[in-house]
Amino acid sequence: MLNLLKTNNLAKHIFTWFCLFFCSVNLAAEDGVWDIQAYDWEEKPQLENRAYITKLEEAIIKNTHLFQIFYEGEDAAMYELLHRKIWVGSEKSIQSYNKLYLPVGDDENVKILKARVLLPNGEIFTLNDKDVQEGKDEEDNTYRYFALDGVQKGSVVEYLFLTKTDPSYMGTRVTLQRDVPVYDITFELVVPNNLIFKLKSYNQLNQPEKDTVLRYQNRYYIYQDSLAKFKEEPSSYSRAYMGYVIFALERNLYSGAKNISSFSNSAANIYANIHIEVDKKMAKEFKKIVAESKMSLGKTDREKIALLENYLKENYFVSNVGGKELYNVSSILQSRAMNEFGAMRLYHSIYNYANFTNTIVFTSDKSSTPFDPDFENNLMITEELLYFPEQDVYMAPTDITSRLGFFDDNLRNTKGLFIEGIQSADGISVGLEKVRHIPPLNAKDNYSELDIDWQLEGDGDLGKINVAHTMWGLQTGYLQTISKYVPEDEMDNYRKTILDSYYGESEIKDVEVENIEGVNFPTKPLVVKAHFNDEVYTEPSSTSTIVKVGMIIGPQSEMYLTEGERKLPVHHGFPKWYNRKIKITVPEGYVLKNLSSLVMNVKSDEDEPLMGFVSNYTYKNNVLEIEINEWYEKGDYPATEFEKYREVINAAADFNKKYVVLEKQ
Questions:
Q1: What is the pLDDT of residue 15?
Q2: Are 297 and 307 in contact (CB under 8 A)?
Q3: Which of 215-242 are b and which e, b meaning 16 or more Cβ less than 10 Å from the residue's Cβ?
Q4: Which of the 8 DSSP states describes residue 228?
Q5: How far is CA 490 from the centre of its chain?
């Protein structure tokens, strides 16, 4: 990309000459040049005395985040500066700042690394790069930190980091909101005047503006007095709704390059790199893989695609490292190891070879940086999929635990960049882009059926419970796809743990599992059968027995009322449906009471409700039959539907507490 970004030699030398003068922001208006390396904190910090801050437990009272791109010799460099001042107003926040963890490595690109503590009595303790300490976490990863001894309530912790990296042109995100109040917010991006960037803010952050003062640089900035503390809310995302800004390069005036970070340019580059010609040697290897996958045994096209996918995912492994051999398909076929780029190449090519047309799709994780079709940059296209248009189904080649049609729901119900190949006039295959919606799954695609046969006993004897749990889709996919990697001597315990989340307090016996192998997902459900005594679910007394029928559906989460109006949308995962059927046989001479409490009907208001919890029963000939349906047709609901969502969630929790009474007639 640097060939698009460099100025001509004369212009570059002019710019470098001006950069020799280390100017402050105040001098920039006079000289027209600003250098980030001239930035520094105040020589003598001031005690914090603003009442609206000193009453807080913690706050960021200054948050300055600066970026500058300029040329150094034949290369371009980006400097990033982070300067924060933090008010420490409680014992809890003191504990948070005994150590100041450094978001930097130990390489030569760290230019400034310093911190200081201003105590309430005006005393100052200053640390620099010589005071950096190292530690190791539980996974033996090394981290670096400043030990800030002596922090007191009423202190101000201040730090300033300056690092140098390679420039990021195609999309950089800067999050300026935090889980504490933030004041005195400054964001700046300063670049050579031949580079034209585009910027956009999201959520509570002001939109960027462009400065007209600097003569030899372009300067974009955000100034904002404050950002409220970001308040997490249950069943929602956090990072996606914090205040953040994204910047990306749009034009280079000297080279004439335009739309540099556009989807059309990205699509052309992606397609050119992923779509490869299959030579004879590669075709021979592909033919062998297709045969070994038993693809031909599939009764439908979807089954055939799924069989080949399962074979690839169980025999070819994705690594997070680089290296040419990990994206060269010929090398991958020999080593069976690849990176994400190599995986996309392999899957795209082999399915084309097998005559299954597929479209390359890139999107973003909506839990972090939701796809914005109106602001084109590479942060919108970080997650890769394949789409099979004739079968109308998606695949996630780089996710080893996913299978055809069933993958991370954070990549669904969002938009994506679809890249299709066409033949140009000169016979070259090129990629054309189109933004389209990636639809959600349906609730019954992710179905869970719990079938319980419960034989009660009288006179204080233990009854018997037989359970059959059948699961489809994302309710079970992870369990099936990782089973291949469970050691044989641990498989019995693995099968048992599938029911532990429901019946972990019981002594589960004779567990039988059907379709546990990854090749069965998503075409066949996972079925788990077992039996156990009902000692956990019955509570005998001298005259009756409490039968804890609600507990038999397994633990249920409960959502409590929160203060204030709900602001964030609901994101509770993938759409899903639960069906529970409970058959309870009553011994001769006994009767069940308190049955009316088993009837519940909590649904949203649509003609075809988008969520609900409904339970009912029949009781005749000494047999109680209960049927419960709980469903969430959407994985995402607007904030206005949160209260109904909470009611449905809590209905399941309420049923969990239901009981009936077994008495002698």
A1: 29
A2: yes
A3: ebbbbbbbebebbeebeebbbbbeebbb
A4: P
A5: 30
